Amino acid sequence: MSRIIVKGEFRDTLTGVADCSELTDESGQLLGIFVPIKPPQLPLFGELSDEEIARRAAEPGGRSWAEIREDLEAGYFRVPSISDEEIQRRRQHTSERTLADIWAQLGVQR
User: For residue 47, what are the domain limits?
Assistant: First the structure.
């Protein structure tokens, strides 16, 4: 993935964008899609009372570190390798998708 550094007024404009947006030139030619990164909405521990932290820690469920480590060592969470042919197939499929398909996948209502 390439990185483009945005400065000045354009940076300020993008900072104010709340939803996925099309980037076009003056003639309306689509240049790309901007997807803003939204900060997580989870409360930080500093925002939780000591009682709430204790209540959450006491909730039943979850797995022990030993169980998680056992699964990791057994290879249950390995990412399978992808062949060059599969990468090309996925690239072709992606290039055939329309902008409407991409918006739909992102859940954007237009």
Answer: 8-79
